[in-house]
Specification:
By secondary structure, this protein is mainly alpha-helical. 57% of the residues lie in helices and 9% in strands. The strands form two sheets. The protein has a three-stranded antiparallel beta sheet, covered by helices on one side. α2 runs antiparallel to α3.
């Protein structure tokens, strides 16, 4: 009886008719072995089936060996061809990718400098506006109100420029690696003191690569990774902005 779970694949180069009949025959013989062997006759039948099945395995392996090797060699030739052909685009990428990365880093560095300058200008404008307002109230005799104005934290709008390099259709961007920079430490400290931010927001703060006035800490790095999954603006806290580490990769 043919095992319905076995599906034979015909290969014209290999004659398998006799092996198929032998296979069906050995299965039929195996099925005549009692479920539980109780005598020597049944035991001998079982042993002969095992011997015959082993011989059939050897015949099958020998029959397909030549074609199997031939197809393996053809597969290996195709793989070698693929490797050789891929060497051309691989070489092109090895040349182009570093140049792309270098240009992107330089443009983003210039953009960061421009953003920093515009941010300084925005801070100065806010300072000038606050001083002018305080001087006005002081001149009106409202000295206490003028002092309150001067004590308020400076909160200029965060300056964020557009993309540093043009988008090219079909060119995949590198996945962002988000981290955070504290660009206004005093603003952040005041927010913590007022209970608007947790104490962890200012614990473990250290300067970024020795840059004066720019800081980081683990709390805000974690915040950046979470918040930048859903929001588009880089501002993630008082005096804190997220940035992509790819933009400053060596």
């Amino acid at each position: 009886m043919k095992d319905e779970t076995v599906e034979l694949i015909r290969i014209p180069e290999i004659e398998t008719g006799d092996l198929e009949w032998a296979g069906l025959d050995i299965v039929t013989k195996a099925e005549t072995i009692p479920a539980v062997i109780l005598d020597d006759e049944a035991y001998e039948l079982c042993g002969n089936v095992i011997i015959e099945a082993g011989k059939l395995q050897k015949r099958i392996t020998e029959r397909v060996a030549e074609e199997k090797q031939r197809r393996f060699n053809r597969h290996r030739m195709v793989c070698d061809l693929e490797t050789a052909m891929l060497a051309f685009p691989k070489k092109a990428l090895e040349i182009a990718q570093p140049k792309r990365s270098a240009y992107e880093r330089e443009q983003k560095r210039k953009q960061s400098e421009r953003e920093a300058e515009l941010q300084r200008q925005a801070v100065k404008q806010e300072e000038d506006k606050r001083i002018a307002e305080a001087e006005y109230f002081d001149a009106m005799g409202e000295t206490e109100h003028a002092d309150q104005i001067l004590e308020q934290p400076i909160e200029p709008p965060l300056v964020v420029l557009g993309p540093a390099v043009p988008k090219i259709k079909g060119l995949r961007a590198r996945p962002p690696v988000w981290a955070a920079q504290i660009f206004d430490l005093m603003m952040l400290v005041k927010a913590v003191a007022a209970g608007e931010q947790p104490l962890a927001a200012v614990i473990g703060i250290k300067a970024v690569n020795g840059r004066r006035g720019v800081y980081e800490n683990p709390f805000w790095d974690q915040q950046a990774k979470g918040l930048m999954r859903t929001q588009e603006t880089s501002s993630i806290g008082p005096g804190v902005r997220a940035y992509d580490k790819n933009d400053s990769a060596g």
